[in-house]
Specification:
Elements (H helix, E strand, L loop, with lengths): L1 H25 L5 H21 L6 H17 L11 H18 L7 H15 L18 H8 L10 H16 L7 H5 L9 H16 L5 H14 L5 H12 L9 H18 L19 H15 L6 H5 L3 H9 L4 H23 L2 H20 L3 H15 L6 H20 L2 H6 L28 E6 L2 E6 L15 H10 L1 E5 L9 E5 L2 H16 L3
Antiparallel strand pairs: 1-2, 3-4
Helix pairs in contact: 1-2, 1-3, 1-7, 2-6, 2-7, 4-7, 5-6, 7-9, 9-10, 9-18, 10-11, 10-12, 11-17, 16-17, 16-18, 17-18, 21-22
Length: 544
């Protein structure tokens, strides 16, 4: 907990300095301390993304970034802004910060932490953005802008990867500064994302902040659109947000194409990043084929698409069974899955229908545009893979819009206090959720509080792997474990090794002496097939 607090002070001061630097060029974008911090997050994220094309995000990048941020923080005496807080506001922030660092100090329990987040950050800190990295492990082709930012601060200031806990403290600061007390209700729910660098937390908080700015009358659409595109770059399922800002500009604000130049640059950077590591502009869809030599294998993408359909039904049906569904069975089987996901799916549909009715009754242009934007996103999600993790942000948005002016400060504090006590209780006694909600898979990996968390957050170490070679590629595979969160790079998940054998392909370095130059996939020759068969035999023996 103490280490998270130290990281928070250092990183928040750094972001604040970078935010002040951005204001010197384009003026003030968001008000207050939190506004400068959020601007700093935005600018740092863009700079780290550009830098990562050329060099790894190691100490040689992090130390200058911290020194520049702290220089402006102290030069412009930004620390004096904190003295403007009242005792009451300071007390609320202190309580929220204590709760956040407490929950953030637990072991990571989101499985993507081990299979996607940490491996992405390892590659970024050791090599930067690697051309065609999706050919090594497809999931790495979606490296989020949030993981780029986390990688940039993971060498010294945040080696335990708790940037999400820091962000939630920043979000609490924004709520208090802007007296947006309704958003206090979201803080306890978002505590489940503080143990890992999950991109869900930033996209939810940023979208709510941007919405609040629009509803509160912020007319700086150039920055808000650019910030919404940056949020989209963190997780593309938040596509409704830049669509909403665009629609708002066309139908409510006076349209000016100049306001979209900055955001267009951010979008271009996002697509270039995807092309560089995946071969196509939008992961994981093989559209706008540019004929890139390092693009992902089409058969592997097809298999990934099929698996996405299976995941949509929580793996309770095979892909062949899903193909036989009528349109009615598609809907019925999705709504009535076994376990908690059925409840979430039904709640999503009912909430969406209720929000549509609310927008008709409200007859407010902004609310109508939000509704249209959410419908566009929902249709796209339903077409590709309607997994609850892709539309969870919609619940927050609909609740916020509906109760924006209908939930007073007192009720917001009461609901938030109750939820905080409930969530802290669940973290302290995770066996309760494991007992009463066994179908909630994430709950199975939650652990009880340990004394060592008072100083340092709990973190897993496995570091058991075996090395292999196929063709020119020397790689590592974790032993008896499906993920490679602490396996040295280059690492491949055992599931992908088996997939590559089925497809008769295998990743190869463009230059075996320099992995930074990237990876391609190639058809296996007779020698390489024998090497792969031997590799798989050893992997299977390890389980015996």
């Amino acid at each position: 907990m103490l280490l998270i607090l130290f990281s928070s002070f250092l990183i928040i001061s750094t972001f604040m300095g970078w935010g002040k630097l951005l204001e010197k060029f384009i003026g003030e974008n968001l008000n207050g301390i939190s506004g400068k911090i959020l601007s700093g997050i935005f600018l740092s994220g863009l700079i780290f993304t550009i830098v990562s094309f050329f060099i790894p995000l190691n100490l040689y990048v992090e130390i200058p970034a911290i020194l520049i941020g702290l220089f402006f923080f102290f030069k412009d005496k930004l620390y004096l802004d904190f003295y403007k807080f009242s005792k009451k506001d300071s007390g609320v922030l202190a309580i929220l910060a204590a709760v956040i660092v407490f929950c953030g100090s637990f072991y990571p329990f989101i499985l993507d932490h081990f299979g996607y987040y940490v491996p992405s950050i390892k590659w970024l800190t050791e090599y930067g953005l690697v051309k065609g990295i999706s050919n090594l492990d497809l999931i790495l082709g979606q490296m989020s802008a949030w993981h780029i930012l986390q990688a940039g601060f993971s060498n010294f200031s945040d080696p335990i990867l708790k940037l999400n806990a820091v962000l939630l403290i920043i979000y609490a600061l924004y709520i208090i500064e802007n007296k947006s007390w309704l958003q206090l209700i979201f803080v306890p729910v978002l505590l489940i994302f503080t143990q890992s660098p999950s991109p869900d937390l930033p996209v939810i908080t940023f979208s709510l902040i941007i919405l609040n700015e629009i509803l509160s009358g912020n007319k700086n659409l150039s920055f808000l659109f650019a910030f919404s595109v940056f949020t989209f770059a963190i997780k593309p399922t938040i596509i409704w947000l830049p669509v909403f800002i665009l629609l708002y500009s066309i139908f409510i604000s006076k349209f000016d194409y100049k306001k979209f130049i900055f955001g267009s640059f951010v979008f271009l950077l996002f697509t270039l990043k995807n092309i560089w590591i995946f071969g196509y502009p939008f992961f994981p869809i093989a559209v706008f084929d540019l004929g890139i030599s390092w693009k992902a294998n089409p058969e592997l993408l097809r298999a990934s698409s099929e698996f996405a359909k299976v995941k949509m039904y929580d793996e309770q049906y095979t892909y062949e069974e899903i193909l036989k569904f009528s349109w009615f069975e598609h809907i019925k089987n999705w709504l009535f899955l076994k376990g908690i996901k059925s409840i979430i799916n039904i709640l999503f549909v009912v909430s969406l229908m209720g929000f549509i009715i609310f927008s008709f009754i409200k007859r407010n242009k902004i609310v109508s545009l939000i509704c249209i934007s959410i419908l566009i996103k929902s249709i796209l999600i339903l077409l590709f893979s309607a997994q609850y993790r892709f539309f969870i942000d919609v619940f927050f948005v609909m609740f916020f819009v509906i109760f924006f002016k209908h939930l007073n400060t007192k009720k917001s504090f009461q609901i938030s206090s109750f939820l905080i006590c409930a969530v802290v209780g669940l973290f302290s006694f995770p066996n309760l959720i494991q007992k009463f909600v066994p179908s909630f898979n994430v709950g199975r990996f939650m652990t009880q509080f340990e004394k060592k968390q008072l100083l340092k957050p709990s973190n897993y170490e496995y570091n058991q792997y075996k090395s292999y070679q196929v063709g020119d590629l020397n790689f590592n595979v974790s032993k008896h474990y499906p993920f490679n969160f602490d396996t040295p790079t280059p690492a491949i998940s055992e599931s992908y090794v088996l997939d590559y054998q089925k497809l008769g392909i295998f990743p190869q370095p463009i230059d075996k002496n320099d992995l930074k130059k990237g990876f391609i996939w190639k058809k296996l020759n007779a020698k390489e097939k024998k090497e792969l068969e031997k590799t798989i035999e050893i992997i299977k023996k390890n389980y015996q």
